[in-house]
Structures are given as C-alpha cells and as structure tokens.
Amino acid sequence: MTTRRPLVILGSGYTGQSLCRLAGQQSLPFQASSRRPDVHLTYVEPHARLRFDLAEPTTWSALPPDADLIWTFPATPLEQVQAFAKQYCSPPRRLVVLGSTSAYNTGGDQAEGLPPWIDEASPINTSLPRVQGEEYLRTHHGAIILRVAGIYGPQRNPVEWIRQGRVGPTDKFVNLIHVEDLAHLCLLALQAGHTGETYNVSDGQPRRWADICAEVSRKWGIVGPRPAGNRELGKRILSHKVLAQFGHTLRHPDLYAALAAIEKVTALRTSPTSRLTS
Hints:
By secondary structure, the chain is of the alpha/beta class. The chain has a domain at 74-164 and 175-207 and 235-254: NAD(P)-binding Rossmann-like Domain (Rossmann fold, 3-Layer(aba) Sandwich), CATH 3.40.50. It is 36% helix and 16% strand. The strands form four sheets. It has a seven-stranded parallel β-sheet, with helices on both faces. A two-stranded parallel sheet has the order 6-13. A two-stranded parallel ribbon has the order 8-10. Helix 2 links the parallel strand 2 (30-34) and strand 3 (49-51). Helix 1 (14-25) crosses helix 6, helix 3 packs parallel to helix 4 and helix 6 (179-192) crosses helix 8 (240-246). The chain is globular and about 55 Å long.
C-alpha cells in the first residue's frame, strides 16, 4: 500500500472544515491554512494551523515541502496562481484543485426541455478566471481537477434554502454532492487520481428544483416561492468516472434521506431542551 504523505488543506471554508475532520479521523498528518488562522481555524490544533495568503508571497514558504496540497478556493488571479505554482507545485508534491461544474458550457440539444448530459470531455468556458487558473495548474503542473457540483450538508441545507425563498419549484436541474462524500473523494484523489486529469463530482442524480421542493413540502410543509419567468434548464452532470476510478461508494446517495438526517440534527440543536442543557 502506498505510504500516505502529509497534507496541507489550502482554505478554511466549508469543505476545508470537513476535510480537516476526515483527515483527523483517518490519522492522516495534516495542516490547514487560512489568511487568518487564529480566527478561522479554531477547530484545528494550533500546531496544525498555517497562515497562507495567495496574494502574499511571503506566506508561501510556510508550506512544508514534503506535503501534498488540496486547494479548496478559486484559483485566481491567474498571475498569482502561476507564480505560486512555479515555486511550490513541483513533483513529487501531489495537487488536487477544487473547481466547479459552472465551468461547463450549457450548449447542446435541449429538446424536450432537458439540458445536455455533461461529462469530463464537455466544453468548458475558458473565459472564466477560475477556469483559467485550474487549467493552468492541470496542464502545467499536473493538478487533479475536481469539478464539484452544489455542496450541501450540515449548516448548508437545501431545505433551509427553500424555507428562506432562495430557491423555488422551477424546472431547472440541480446537481448536488454531500460534503462528507466530497471530502472522501478529495483524499482519494491524492491516492487514485491520475495526474492532469479532470473528474466531475456529484451524486450522479440530477434533479429538478420543482421535484425537490415537492418532496420538501410533503415531508416538512415548507413551500418555496416560484420565481417568475425563470426558464433556465441547468445541467445534468455525469460522475461515473470519479466513482469508478476511485472505488468510492457514496455515503449519501439518497438526497432526501440526507436532508431528513440534517433536519433531525438541526431540530435537536435548536430545541428548548437542547438550549437549556448546552
């Protein structure tokens, strides 16, 4: 079995927190970075906190030379990405970069109200700054790009999005991935990902917001507003490649079961009994 190298998680956002938890559970030596580690990395032991800012080259040398990197924030601006990569992204260091499925164009045959299926060979929009950064890292430094669908999980709950009126029952397709599955796939990418390859990351089940809203209404009585005149069809993302190559079985393949679990935990945390005993 391949020896696992130390890991640095670049970025302390939602996915970064889940990666830190998983790395700890797997006893994987890791450090996490932030522009303000004492503020944003309080969930990490002090010795595992790094101050890193892509815009400040003086912070780059804090990265241990023997560690692999998982890059969780947008790879922009291009000039800074290039300068950093030329100094710190050489082999044997492995680099996984989190992109977005918004990189893909939505062209194609949209007959019968269905958007096209999108796989890793589908055209991307290279006018987007983050796509330019990702493609530079992939083609010049062998980065493994994960194009990630909409991320959900605890504290990022689609039921709450509907409750707040941020989304409603439109015919637009949405592609989702639970943050716990994303974290597992990030770590697996370091082991099983092919240098310079791109992988789509979603649960493989595109759904219309109208169908999600109907199920949320049935289960929890929450009705989202219907936006007027929204005819956007969205995308349908194929994720066979990543699941097959990485050998990962999704822990949350059923969106509605995952949402029920999130709602249950949220209800327990906000109940009067919980507040009295906390």
